[in-house]
Design a protein that fits this description.
The complex is a heterodimer of chains A (417) and B (150).
Chain A lengths: L12 H9 L7 E2 L2 E2 L1 E2 L10 H14 L9 H21 L7 E4 L2 H16 L5 E5 L8 H10 L2 E5 L9 H7 L4 E7 L11 H10 L3 E5 L11 H4 L3 E5 L10 E5 L1 H6 L10 E5 L2 E4 L13 H17 L1 H19 L5 E4 L8 E6 L4 H10 L2 E2 L1 E3 L4 H7 L4 E5 L6 H18 L1
Helix pairs in contact in A: 2-10, 3-10, 4-5, 11-14, 12-14
Chain B lengths: L2 H4 L2 H8 L12 E7 L4 E10 L2 E10 L2 H14 L4 H15 L7 H7 L15 H23 L2
Antiparallel strand pairs in B: 1-2, 2-3
The chains are: A alpha/beta (417), B alpha+beta (150).
Chain lengths: 417, 150
């Protein structure tokens, strides 16, 4: 099969049916009704090829990597490193040394905060985050600024859920040493102007980490084009296994950073009077990694590449536009997050119906959505709500599923209105 | 799965028109309850006179289950002694977490609260039904401990 990164041919209903057939879980019945899975922002489902790749690894090549002289270990090592190369190419990094495998976005961010942050931040320095960040791109920076005496500053959002570059220009000063920003907001769906923010940060010599947890499966990512210093994402949000994630970092920065966790594989020589660290990327991969997870993620990224991320983004754009148009017909519904540039996520509140009750009522119709604060409590505070309901899409969702969602919401309004 | 088992008319009614809603200025006991999982928060106020609850009010924001449970609690606890309130909380909690069977005797002891037992089929919602009750227990017993140490 062939496909290219620029394939944006219209997606037919038949095409979506074919894609859906790749995901066994989508055949599930929930409470006697066909599953409508609209919680892709929390985690995505896994195609058969990923499930098979992980099973095949355990059935045929399971072994520890980088240390055995035997056949299985060599096979496992080759598969693991091949997966790294797939991951590196997918995000547009120049070298495998720049693709650190972690347990997920959270660990990737904590790695940078602890290794780069503790080594470089000092009292009076400033770290910027946005008001729309996920807790995992706030708390590590709170912890590291508290320890170093640096100051955490917040780029505000407007009522559409957007940051303004004017605010960014004002907040970035010579005191700014680091900017941590999400590419695509998990609570609002906003796509941030990360390229422009990176350019502004670099003008004062500040580094930028982009949290790509939500973006990676929904919009093209090219770290070289963005010129970001770090990019973090999780495998499970792009049809791969849980417990595997990626940290991209520019090689020169990673070379200069101290290891974060110590252990096997991250060292070259260990002596009691001092040890020598291994080369990149292994310096940041202490202990036996999630080998099956890495290989599974490689298979997931190959699968996405075959379909084409541009094509996915275009189709999901249509789905989201249709959803927003249909949601506007629900009495008392207020969308939360109405940015001009959005993808894959529709958050909302409904008058007189709490998000949890919406979640339970939709569940009874077989529809899975998320209800809560989405690990973004500052966003909830901004909009003055305790919780929102969130439908989040993947390319295997259909217009008919959106219609099911709308029927379910009308039922909820009828019940509580 | 019948949603009406969960959202019975009485629950929908208490959610729409919560009883005893608002701050109680002369409360002798009060506490704030918070469910960090969903962000729901409410405050329970009690006026206790000679070990007997004479007034209960609450305010805050929550789902239908937590609002209805709080509203019904304010009605049911009014006039009960603290010991009776504790015993009712214990029974209600045991039933919801599945540690006590819902037999005829239990159902009659629960009275109106029995309509909330539909949440047993929804493990993720049990905390919604017990939030106000846990908060009430916190209010009553934190204060009592404070008194006992004086």
């Amino acid at each position: 099969m062939t496909s290219t990164a620029t394939n944006t041919a219209p997606v037919s209903a038949d095409q979506v049916t074919t894609w859906r057939a790749d995901f066994p879980i989508l055949q599930t019945q929930v409470h006697g009704k066909p599953l409508v899975y609209l919680d892709n922002g929390a985690t995505t489902q896994k195609p058969q090829v990923v499930i098979d790749t992980v099973s095949r690894y355990y059935e045929t090549t399971n072994s520890n990597i980088h240390r055995g002289v035997h056949y299985l270990s060599e096979m496992a090592t080759v598969d693991y490193e091949n997966a790294r190369a797939v991951i590196r190419r997918f995000m547009g990094a120049a070298s495998d040394k720049e693709a650190i495998l972690t347990s997920g976005t959270t660990e990737s961010i904590n790695l940078v905060a602890n290794s780069w942050g503790l080594d470089n931040l000092k009292a009076g320095d400033e770290v910027l985050v946005t008001e729309m960040e996920h807790h995992s791109n706030i708390v590590p920076w709170q912890m590291v600024t508290q320890r170093t005496g640096a100051v955490l500053k917040v780029i505000p959002i407007n009522d559409a859920g957007e940051i303004s570059l004017e605010d960014v220009r004002q907040l970035i000063t010579e005191r700014t040493k680091f900017v941590a920003i999400s590419h695509l907001s998990n609570a609002l769906g906003t796509i941030n102007p990360v390229k422009e923010v990176i350019e502004l940060a670099h003008q004062v010599g500040a580094l930028v980490l982009v949290d790509g947890a939500q973006a990676i499966a929904h919009t093209p990512v090219d770290v070289a084009d963005l010129d970001c210093d770090f990019y973090a994402f999780s495998g499970h949000k792009i049809f791969g296994p849980t417990g595997i994630g990626v940290l991209y970092g520019k090689q020169a920065l990673l070379e200069a950073m101290p290891p974060w966790q110590g252990g096997g594989d991250m060292i070259r020589i260990v002596r009691f009077d001092g040890s020598q660290w291994n080369d990149l990327p292994y310096k940041f991969e202490a202990g036996t990694p999630n080998i099956a997870g890495a290989i599974g993620l490689g298979a997931a990224l190959d699968y996405v590449t075959e379909i084409g991320i541009d094509r996915i983004a275009a189709y999901e754009g249509l789905l989201l536009a249709y959803t927003q148009q249909q949601l506007a017909t629900i009495p008392g519904l207020t969308p939360i997050g109405t940015a001009k540039h959005k993808a894959s996520i529709a958050s909302f509140v409904v008058k007189h119906v709490h998000a949890h009750d919406l979640g339970t009522i939709l569940d009874s119709e077989g529809i899975a959505i998320r209800a809560g604060h989405h690990c973004a409590m500052p966003v909830m505070e901004h909009f003055g709500v305790a919780a929102t309901a969130r439908a989040s899409f993947a390319f295997y969702n259909t217009l008919e599923e959106v219609d099911q969602l709308i029927l379910g919401l009308n039922k909820a309004v009828e019940m509580f209105g | 799965m019948d949603l009406r088992e969960l959202y019975q008319d009485l629950i929908v009614d208490h959610n729409k028109r919560p009883r005893n809603f608002g701050k109680l200025d002369d409360a002798t006991y009060f506490a704030e309850g918070f469910n960090p999982l969903c962000g729901d928060q409410l405050t329970v106020y009690l006026y206790v006179d000679a070990e007997r609850v004479t007034k209960v009010q609450f305010e805050g924001e929550g789902c239908a289950i937590s609002t209805a449970s709080a509203s019904m609690m304010t009605e049911i606890l009014t006039g009960k002694t603290i010991a009776e309130a504790d015993a009712l909380f214990e029974l209600f909690h045991q039933v919801l977490i599945g540690e006590k069977e819902l037999d005829d005797d239990t159902t009659s002891k629960l009275g109106k609260l029995a309509v909330l037992t539909g949440v047993r089929a929804y493990p993720s919602r049990v905390k919604c039904a017990t939030l106000a009750w846990h908060t009430c227990q916190g209010a009553l017993h934190k204060k009592q401990e404070a008194i006992s140490t004086e």
